[in-house]
Amino acid sequence: MAKSQPEPPRRRWLKIVGIGGAVVVALGVAAVATVPRWAGPFVEDAIIERVEARLGGDLEIGELSFDFDHADLRGVSFTLADGSAVIFDEVEVELEEGGVWRGALAVERVALRGGTIRGDVDDFRELADKLRTQTTAEDGGGSGRRLRMRPKSVAVEGVVVDLTWPRRGSVSGRGVLEASVDVAAKKASISVRDASVHRGERSFEARRLRTEVAGGEDGGLAFPLSLAIEGGAIPLTPEIAVADVHGDVTLADRELTELVVELAGSFSDREGSKAEAGGEGGELWSIAGKVRRDFSAGDIKLDMAAFELAKVPQVLERLPLVDSGGATVGGQVSLHFADGKADVAGELAIAGLNVDHPMLASEVVRDVGFNLGLEASVDPSASELVVRKAKIERKGVALEVDGTIRHPEVVEERRYEINASIPSVPCQELLRAIPVELVPSLVGFQLSGDFEMTAAAKIDFADLEAVSLTGKVGIDKCKVKSAPPRVSSQRLQGPFTHRAVMRDGRVVVVELHPGSGDFTPLDDISPYMVAAVMTTEDGGFWRHKGFITSQFEAALRRNLMAGKIRLGASTITMQTVKNVLLSHERTFARKLQELFLTWYIERSLPKKRIMEIYLNVIEFGPGIYGVTRAARHYFGKKPADLTPPEAAYLALMLPSPVRRHVHYCEGELSTKFKRKHERILRYMQERGRIDDATYEAWKDVGVTFDRREARSKSECNAEIKRLMEASGKQHADSGLLQGATADPDDTAPELFDAILDEAESEGYDPSEQDAPGKPAMDDYDFMNGEDG
């Protein structure tokens, strides 16, 4: 074999260079191909360093994947110094093509998906200012920048926003943000779904809020700015909301100096507040107009077309109504704003309501309807409402009201001045205009004549002693042509049987005729008994015509001072009507009937007969009705033989006869009750109802109970407890109003132990538990009341 010749040196070197070049190219290709993997940590560090240096706060990146033209970041969290934070589940960044090869990275587009923005609005406002400053600096930084972070566009998808704004009264807001931002053009389309804003107890919710915004010359937003609302809801009460609100609200400028609204909606309960537009309720109201924030100018009009309540079943279920789907409501209100005030004018028509409320009546009040016309002005700065004219009309009867109500937060600065009147109207028409369920006992009354009324109240909370309540009820012009048999003067003037139903359902029968053993004629009742009840119940009985008008004013004054109803103005005639003809239920219906029947009884019976009936039917203890039984039970006497101290004790039983029977059970009066008893005797003497000699003879005698009808202390107290725990309503079974309803305010079994301990518990006063409308001794100044 021929021996091979060695390669020439030049050729060998070319081969070596070729192989080396191939290796370099391979290494270069490998390096380029793996840039994202080995450059990623450097990019991540650079981003964190740059962001933290420019904006402060702490930036964390859970995962970064980097390619030539984009970067994906996951678990991005940026936390400010005071806890506000921006967290994104995913951040996708698109880079300018070829930037890597030029040694400069330029962000083209950013997409933010998922996550949360939470914290104080002011914190993010400061952050935005920093970003704007940095962006401006970048824009003027020349072409030497190696990293441009300002994108041309930003997209936001499904980011939860949870913000607070303490400087604006603890305002908070929440929603899911969707946005598309054109950074170069300074425009953005923003949408927030499931939005809610809260400020104190007030709130606003919406299925979606949408707006288009643009940057202004000052770097802020350009105005006017319109906000589109879909499925909005604002609660009116804890159960009912203005719902399905849709339309636009336009803001004139950053300071919200003027609003333009064009909204419509429906009503719903809180659970259904964000129902779909055009749902079961439909569009039931609309509001349109514009107004300046300081109320210096503007006009707003609210229209509510008459609609059946069946269209808003959610609302219907929440109101105290039954069978009212066919009831209608509608009207319109216009508001004119000027000089910080608002003039209000409008009309409202309601028809066909069936109202079921325990404070109104024991039965459903049917076919309630009326027309309301209103002219008024509101001054928010003074918390003042001036009613120039308000007119409520029903079946030809009108109630007209005017006045001024000033109601600032400071109680002492509140002032009310209200005038009300009913122009002359036939008495029978007035009676017919009242729903029959409010006056069932008056069915059958036939009246003639005309009725009219005027009333005026002046209340200054800075001087409640000067409270004024005046007026004139022209019912004396009405004449009764005929009355229902149960209430006729012929029945009440002669013997009759009174049946009282107690709280536990037992019926007590009182025969009001001579020889029955239950009845004592007034002439055979101790005059001290009459003097005692006039002292505690009705000092002007022999003079007034059923009502003590001055005591209505006194009751109003004392109730305002107490901040609650503690003192009424119930006369002996009113109590007689309540006990003989009506019931003890606490409803507006009972009080309305009580007032009418008091007027009728006063004009149908002599005063002496009214007092006689009263003393023979009033309750003096558990099941102890009438002074005949009371005198025998407590003292083993006839009513004619009652002494001044004994009469004073029986009069003290009247405000709360069941509770105060505890003294008889215990066999003696408690220390506190003795003091009350002594005061009654002194008042009787000071008012001239007993002479000085009688007072001196009896003031230190006290009372001694007759124990022949007494049971054991435990049995006696058990009866009181059973009656207090009973849920029935005490009423006259033989009267006009026989319905019985539960009244939890009349029962207080939890106080029973305190009543039993009254003798040892100086801090307890049973008079504090007396029913409203009955003057408790500690709550009534007899020296300044009616005399007689």
Describe this protein's structure.
By secondary structure, the protein is α+β, with helices and mostly antiparallel strands. Helices cover about 25% and strands about 35% of the residues. The termini are far apart. About 25% of the residues are buried.
Q: How many individual β-strands?
A: 29
Number of helices: 19
Give the terminus-to-terminus CA distance.
161 Å
Strand content bin: 25-35%
Q: What is the average of the pLDDT values?
A: 82
> Which class of secondary structure composition applies to the elements?
alpha+beta
**Main beta-sheet strand count, sense and barrel state:** 22 strands, mixed
Computed Rg? 42 Å
Catalogue the unreliable spans.
Answer: 23-35, 140-144, 275-280, 738-788
Helix percent band: 25-40%
The gross shape turns out to be elongated
Task: Quickly list its features.
788 residues, alpha+beta, 22-stranded mixed beta sheet, three-stranded antiparallel beta sheet, disordered C terminus
Fold topology:
Blueprint lengths: L8 H25 L1 H21 L2 E9 L3 E10 L5 E11 L3 H4 L2 E16 H19 L7 E2 L4 E13 L5 E12 L4 E13 L2 E13 L10 E11 L4 E12 L6 E12 L15 E8 L4 E12 L4 H6 L9 E11 L2 E15 L9 E15 L4 E11 L2 E10 L8 E12 H7 L12 E3 L1 E11 L7 E6 L5 E4 L6 H5 L2 E6 L5 E6 L14 H10 L12 H14 L9 H9 L7 H17 L2 H11 L1 E3 L2 E2 L1 H9 L8 H10 L8 H5 L4 H16 L5 H7 L14 H13 L5 E2 L19 H5 L32
Parallel strand pairs: 4-5, 4-6
Antiparallel strand pairs: 1-2, 2-3, 3-4, 6-7, 7-8, 8-9, 9-10, 10-11, 11-12, 12-13, 13-14, 14-15, 15-16, 16-17, 17-18, 18-19, 19-20, 20-22, 21-24, 22-23, 25-26, 25-29, 27-28
Helix pairs in contact: 8-14, 8-16, 10-11, 10-12, 14-16
